[in-house]
Amino acid sequence: MKKIILVVLSAVMALSITGMTACGDGKEYSVTFDKNCYAEVIVPSGLTVKGGGKITEPETPSREGYSFTGWYSDASLTEKWDFMKDAVKKETVLYAGWMRSGVTDKISYPDTDKDFSKLYTPGQQEAAYDYKTYFLPSKNGSVQPYVGDTMPYYENGTYYIYYLKDGGDSYNHSIFVATTKDFVNYEERGEVVLESDRGDAQDSWIGTGSLVKVENKYYFFYTGHNGSESKEFNETIMVAEGSSPTNFVKKTGWQITPPASLGQKRDFRDPNAVYDPESGKITLTVTAAQEGRARILKLTLDKDLSNVVYNGIIFTDSTGKYMNLECSDTFKVGDKWYLTYSAQDDTMFYASSDNEYGPYDEPKILDGKLFYAAKHVSDGTDTYLVGWARRSESVSSTQDVSGWAGNMIAQKVVSDGNGGIYLAPVDYSSLLKTRRALAVNSTSVVLESGSRISYTDAFNCYERYIVEGDLSFTNGGEFGFAFDYNGTENKYKTIYINPAKGVIGLAFNKGSTVITEIPVSLSAKKEYSFKYMQEGSVGVFYIDGKVALTVRLYGCTGKNVKLFASNNNVTLSSVTIYT
Question: DSSP 3-state assignment of 128?
Fold first, then answer.
């Protein structure tokens, strides 16, 4: 629920304040209408009433995109002021309550929630999750496989999300596929699409690639990896041909090897293919290294896979920090072209250009370390990045989230209107329909803190939910959400925002173990819309138009999530939660 200071000018609004002195204490008290949304305000002066007096209700204020819910005597909006009954007995501030327009669902209290109270360990909880939106492959016996690098493709209303399957019935990261029409519900195709060679061929391990349709043929370009000393090249680009998006035959003997000018034969991977019908050319961007620096290369070939030409380097890691820029991709949103990649075992970046193959500007961070190897897919209207949410090798670890492969995750790509992009959630409304109560008897959560960390319960951590609203703060101190891990404060897992440092991050052990951290610029006394979607142990926190942060939170389901702050006053308003 939104809080707002009504701009009051006594001469203009003719606000009537009537003193009821017969039962009052004779003292005069000030009355203020507080809009609390940090816009420019004019605070009325001289509005006083004698003790026991009543206030005539002012005209109902309006605000675009919100419905007014009344005036409240507390900042948390739990005590509604009754202008017919309530009398002024002290200095009084009345806070306007707001709810986003369209939120009409009544709060429900279903008794069908999965009981996590007896699932004491993170492993027990993880095994009990029914992942839908953050897809996991089916178990192979008792073994849980995971989603590795994704290779999305769209055709006729269906998104085909190919992925390197890690574990289970997958041999050396063979390629499998799941399909979806909405990124909410997935259908797993159990059969392997491309299997790694079980002998000593170049593709004894399969690496990332991409699918492209060329007239009536489908070409699946992929990385063939073989670390054997008997092989001249550790990695080459290989291809399979198909007549549909699910049936392929490898083209024996066809491969692209690293250009000699690179000066190395081991690092040449992740082909991303684009077909241009006008020129009859297929363009590949490939990640590689030259002189110890991570690069992205461009190659072209004819539509019959002949006449391969190396066109040079289109992007270089200017930081010199990374050995590889994995799963690079190019796509257009609006008038700009974007290049995305995951810096090796690190953060998701993007760079922009006026042209598809550069030159590109300096890269910016798109998400943290836990949203990895994402590549784009477009249905002609909307563009999405599909990757995987990193996991821990041990779900009980309180020190790291560094395992390879995890849950599939899709996020929508949105232009910020200034040449940049940001990530937003897909539409989960078809799945998350039941509005639930917060941990407070209100739609606002307010926390005022000093130098010590303060906490207040905010909402429950369900198996699958989305919570959204507005947030604002007054100072530079750290604040965010604390997730109970094992009942002890020093093991809280936190999604934290530190305005003074200009960062948002995920930390374990009450903030002492930072897992991932990315920059964000937020101003005090300004409102920001936020959303947090969590399913199982995977979550993504969004500040609209600003930032997305993917997180992994084992062992927190069924417990209260707390708002925390230090050296700051924080307000969550107009908050709703759906399961």
Answer: helix
> What's the CA gap between 406 and 417, in Å, rounded?
32
Question: What secondary structure, in 3-state letters, does 430-490 show?
Answer: CCCCCEECCCCCCCCEEEECCCCCEEEEEEECCCEEEEEEEEEECCCCCEEEEECCCCCHH
Q: For every residue of 491-505, which 3-state class applies, written as one string?
A: HCEEEEEECCCCEEE
pLDDT at 1: 46
Q: What is the DSSP letter of 35?
A: B
Give the Cα separation of 13 and 11 in Å (integer): 6
Mean pLDDT of the chain: 92
Q: For residue 12, is it left (φ>0), alpha (ψ between -120 and 50) or beta?
A: alpha
Residue 451 identity (one-letter amino acid):
S
More confident position, 41 or 301: 301
Whose CA is closest to 219, among 190, 169, 178, 256?
A: 256
Q: Contact, 69 vs 99, CB < 8 A?
A: yes
Residues 514 and 505: beta-carbon distance below 8 Å: yes
pLDDT digits 0-9 by tens, 390-444: 999 999 999 999 999 999 999 999 999 999 999 999 999 999 999 999 999 889 9
Q: How many helices (H) and strands (E) does the chain have?
A: 2, 40
Cα distances (angstroms) measured from residue 408 to each of 21, 80, 188: 67, 44, 12
Kindly tell me the sign of the dihedral angle through the C-alpha atoms of 506, 508, 512, 516.
negative
For 303-362, how does the pLDDT look when each residue is reduced to its tens digit (9 = 90+)? Answer: 999 999 999 999 999 998 998 999 999 999 999 999 999 999 899 999 999 999 999 999
Alpha carbon distance, N-terminus to C-terminus of the chain:
19
Structure-model confidence comparison of residues 358 and 8, the more confident one: 358
Burial status of residue 261 (CB atoms within 10 A of its CB: 0-12, 13-18, 19 or more): exposed
- Distance between CA 102 and CA 121 in Å, rounded? 39
User: Mapped to the 3 state alphabet, what secondary structure does 262-279 carry?
Assistant: HCCCCCEEEEEEEEECCC
- pLDDT tens per residue across span 517-528: 999 999 999 999
Q: What tokens does 86 get? A: 């309530």
| Residues linked to residue 569 through DSSP beta bridges, in sequence order | 448
Instruction: Give the count of beta carbons closer than 10 Å to the beta carbon of residue 190.
Output: 9
pLDDT of residue 96: 83
